[in-house]
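Worked example (supplementary).
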Amino acid sequence: DAKTTQPPSMDCAEGRAANLPCNHSTISGNEYVYWYRQIHSQGPQYIIHGLKNNETNEMASLIITEDRKSSTLILPHATLRDTAVYYCIVRDQYSGGGADGLTFGKGTHLIIQP
Amino acid sequence: NAGVTQTPKFRVLKTGQSMTLLCAQDMNHEYMYWYRQDPGMGLRLIHYSVGEGTTAKGEVPDGYNVSRLKKQNFLLGLESAAPSQTSVYFCASARATGNTIYFGEGSWLTVV
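After joint prediction of all chains, the assembly is encoded as:
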């Protein structure tokens, strides 16, 4: 069962902010929202994660709605090198040693246009 | 700072052959994972380990075996390779349960 829903693809102009939406309407209280990206033929790269509050780091910002049923990843000034597949993943931080690996969907293919 | 390193990066096998993929991490992480990724798909968890000497099955474990004899290494074995195991394999590690997971660069395996 998919825990997240993302659009299959999006375009964004270089230099503009890229806003990637994610729906996770069945998220539970212990589950964090993680974002990874995968540039063609490379390993997935961690971007950011959060529980309830908005988060920002050197790569991106994560905005989580108050009801936690959706979130948006923001790349503030997209460059051509940001073209990648972006995965939104919900993950239980307290799985107690079980299979707490990440469950990947198909993600959003973000294409940055020059 | 190497992070997570996988060897080999590319391999072609004949059906029925065996091989081992090696994953090494230099971050003193307890948890390690093996994923596979097929064209146009997300990653799927094969096996994982929560510490030295432990292994457990993930979502798609059939046809694979793993071993974690040393904390820094996680080996993925294919006893009798099949064309359905043609895929890109990613190793990953995390400091502990619930911590951020970091990935290697992948190993491309083709079974003919």
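Two points are worth noting when inspecting this output. The two ends of chain B are 36 Å apart (CA to CA). Chain B is about 0% helix and 50% strand.
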